[in-house]
Write a structure and sequence with these properties.
501 residues, Vanillyl-alcohol Oxidase, Chain A, domain 3, Uridine Diphospho-n-acetylenolpyruvylglucosamine Reductase, domain 2, Uridine Diphospho-n-acetylenolpyruvylglucosamine Reductase, domain 3, 3 domains, nine-stranded antiparallel sheet, five-stranded antiparallel sheet, globular
């Protein structure tokens, strides 16, 4: 029950946009009208610009993938992201099929200075993977995974979804840390850090990254690894999409059996303090192979609220019951759904299929510890509303994640025990004012116990100062990398590092 999956649990049903459907190759290539119209657009700094129709036609002619204008079939599907709260309309959309197309699209964006959004899986909580009147680069046609089982390596193209990697690598009983919803884009997940069910055992996704190919703002393709362009390699491991578009990731894979022991223990909401106290005591000292989370949720309608502990144990099956025994001493749960299951099936278990039915709003922050005051703040203030889902969730850290220095990669929260999220969702089209006001007030009692935020959970209210502070001691180095690879801040729709040149 990780990060966004609590919306799909039996306690909290929520949904976002449908994923782009797979198209045959011939449908990816199209010709625009001979004389496409001029387009009114905006630049990255908010200025107005007119894109010449002839230049749009030239862009389409040079790309192997599609260029979509607002009246084209597929435009609405491409522009949408999973959270329907963000209903934005780019001036045009480029759908690259490979690195060459990405370079062409980036050159076009740079030459016009366009506001540029990059979409992989469309999970951006702050809506940064789409934009109004700019250029959206939609990577959904650039998806492929190749596994070398002898070398224990996987190469993943920039638009791929994590479920593709899980599927291909586990065919050889190999795996690396990915997120927890299979239709999450690898690009956004990994460049932000990359939490997942195996993070405590194998580290974050960025800890398993061995090289990348990046199309930078000047249209070059730059290979980065510990031996080559090491500054860029350091920056993409936690610095988000600030430095360019990653078109290829090389991951280290680890041997692991397909079957894991996973699932929730579900308790009545009155046991919320017990669940939180158990996590505070047992979570940090759990073995690396045991991943643990808590979820406290009030579902919409008349479903009863509940508190859950959610486990994923990836070690020897013979040890599972011994390690889970302390949790079972909490007493009789409403439901015990812990069971042996296929890891790839587990990774798909939180997938969202309901088409854009619900919108959401999230607040989040890292925890260094869980003192009694935080437990009280979480339990005392949580209130349900039949019009919405109300949930608190913790993505666990520690283990192998914590054995890497805060400055070893751009991801700077190795000392956290986890990432706490408070979320509400509501039926899309309903007035969200009361729900957002409630969660902001609730978060005000919790925020003092947190520090910073996961860049993949960037909030709309984030300021330049809060973003800068969030990178902690790594910020100055990130600015220097930004100055080198994106001095014009073409890639600004992210937890943005502003260049100083």
């Amino acid at each position: 029950m990780k990060r966004r999956t609590f919306f799909k649990s039996t306690l909290a049903a929520a949904a976002f946009a449908t994923l782009p459907r797979r198209r045959p190759l011939h449908a990816l290539v199209r010709e625009l009208p001979q004389d496409p119209p001029d387009l009114d657009a905006v630049t990255g700094d908010g200025g107005q610009v007119t894109i010449r129709g002839a230049d749009v036609a030239d862009l389409a002619a040079r790309m192997r993938g599609r260029v979509l204008l607002p009246n084209d079939e597929g435009y609405d599907e491409a522009r949408r992201i999973l959270n329907p709260s963000f209903d934005k309309h780019p001036a045009l959309i480029a759908q690259p099929t490979g690195t060459a197309d990405v370079r062409i699209a980036v050159d076009f964006a740079r030459e016009y200075g366009l506001l540029t959004a990059v979409k992989c899986g469309g999970h951006s909580l702050s809506g940064k993977s789409t934009c109004d009147r700019g250029l959206q680069i939609d990577l959904s046609a650039h998806r492929d995974v190749r596994v070398d089982p002898a070398a224990r390596r996987a190469w993943v193209t920039g638009g791929s979804l994590l479920g593709q990697l899980d599927h291909e690598s586990m065919a050889y009983e190999l795996v690396t840390t990915m997120g927890t919803v299979s239709h999450t884009g690898v690009g956004g997940l990994v460049t932000g850090g990359g939490f997942g069910r195996l993070g405590r055992r194998f580290g974050l996704a960025v800890d398993n990254l061995r090289s990348v190919d990046v199309v930078t703002a000047d249209g070059r393709m730059v290979h980065a690894s510990p031996q080559e362009n090491a500054d860029l390699f350091w920056g993409v491991r936690g610095g988000g999409g600030n430095f360019g578009i990653v078109t290829s990731f090389e991951f280290e894979l680890h041997p692991m059996q397909r079957e894991v022991v996973a699932g929730p223990l579900v308790f009545p909401i009155e046991r919320a303090r017990d669940v939180l106290a158990f996590f505070a005591e047992q979570g940090p000292q759990a073995p690396d192979e045991l991943d643990m989370a808590f979820v406290i949720a009030h579902p919409p309608g008349d479903e009863p609220p509940a508190a859950m502990l959610y486990f994923c144990y990836s070690g020897p099956a013979t040890e599972a019951e011994r390690l889970l025994a302390p949790a079972r001493k909490l007493g009789n749960p409403l439901a015990d759904q812990i069971q042996a299951m296929d890891y790839v099936a587990l990774q798909r278990s939180g997938d969202i299929s309901d088409p854009r039915a619900r919108a959401s709003y999230v607040k989040s922050g890292f925890l260094a510890e869980m003192p009694a005051g935080l437990i009280d703040a979480i339990a005392n203030g949580l209130e349900g509303d039949p019009r919405r889902t109300t949930a608190v969730f913790l993505q666990q850290s520690g283990g192998a994640i914590s054995r890497v220095g805060n400055d070893a990669t751009a991801f700077a929260y190795r000392d956290a025990i986890g990432n706490l999220l408070c979320a509400v969702d509501w039926a899309y089209g309903d007035d969200p004012t009361d729900h957002i006001a409630w969660i902001k007030d609730y978060w005000s009692s919790i925020e003092p116990f947190t520090e910073g935020f996961y860049v993949n959970d960037l909030e709309l209210e984030a300021t330049a100062a809060s973003v800068n502070a969030n990178y902690r001691g790594n910020y100055d180095r990130l600015v220097q990398i930004k100055n080198r690879y994106d001095p014009s801040n073409l890639f600004r729709l992210n937890a943005n590092i502003e260049p100083t040149v």
